[in-house]
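Recap from last week: sequence in, structure out.
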Amino acid sequence: MNGPVRIVTDASVWIDLHDGGLVAQMFGMDFELIAPDVVIAEIEEPSGSELVARGLASKELSAVQIVEAQQLRSQNTSLSMPDAFACVLARASGTILLTGDRRLRAVAEHLGIRVHGTLWLVHRMVRARVLSPQWAVKALELMRAAGSRFPQDAYQRLLRRLSGD
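Predicted structure tokens:
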């Protein structure tokens, strides 16, 4: 392996992780976690500053990247500016974008950015033995109860995998 997997996160992932009680486990993964400073500023629970203290790297976009994010946002009005910043940062750094936002995922995939969501992350946590399959199922249930809307087919597949692990 060539070191930790570099990942740019948006706010939705941290909301899911908080709701599922998995924030600490996220920092137990072999990931280099990065988020645009504007994304970190919008995270309320846990606070963005708490996530930075745990190891989330805050990145400022260059002036050129900010213009690129503004253009991306104007072309995709369903995106928030922080989401556009996350997309631009992931593309510029050639990293995975981790998001639970369906619209951001669609835009990022259209731009050729490798995108994963919370279900992928939970499965990786189980494979890395940071999380037991039973704990993963409970965390996913907590996330859904809090309002996360996972793609139904992928959610059911993961539940079957976790039951078989």
